[in-house]
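Recap from last week: sequence in, structure out.
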Amino acid sequence: MLEVRDLHVYYGEIHALKGVSFRVTEGEIVTLLGNNGAGKTTTLKTLSGLLAPRDGDVVLDGATLVGAAAHDIVGRGITHVPEGRRIFNRLTVQENLEMGAYTRSDREVGQDMERVFGTFPRLRERRTQVAGTLSGGEQQMLAIGRALMARPRLLLLDEPSMGLAPVLVEQIFETIGTINAQGVTVLLVEQNAAMALSIAGRGYVLETGRIALEGSARDLADNPEVRRAYLGEV
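Predicted structure tokens:
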């Protein structure tokens, strides 16, 4: 489905991604692990067209995404839930969801909104509420719901558990599993390595802009380096 080939990305003279390569197969949940500054968010921004690589390629179903505008990438089936949610604070919940469907002209937008409300019942209760007044957990639900309104085939999630209480983290990750079971492939960036590896099938570890480790989620969870660096074990 998605292939990232020898990706090099710069911020000015700073070489942020140094030959990153990985793949995501249709139907998977794949996680990218790494410390702050490792290049995880940069990777997702490059996949969604917000950053342009200096070298390398991003290929979706055999066709390159390099050079495509971000809205065209959405139209090709990739949506991005950014770190920090980045909802439209002054719009209502419903208006935020409608914005998620801005690339669509079909008549099924209303059905998909009802599907989002079914996935996140709390958003239905807050339908007319201004999004900036929602709790952190509700805003994360809204950010994911807005992304789902574009009918993605591949959902990019950047730190969905950030700043949430443990009970809400569990709820968000259960929902990610449900979304995947409904046919949406997921690429997940997450600091909570234990939760990420509990739902992912495979994973990659980024260190200073390079892939340092890769393997099944079980193998990574059992790897002494991963356990020490990301799972808090000595």
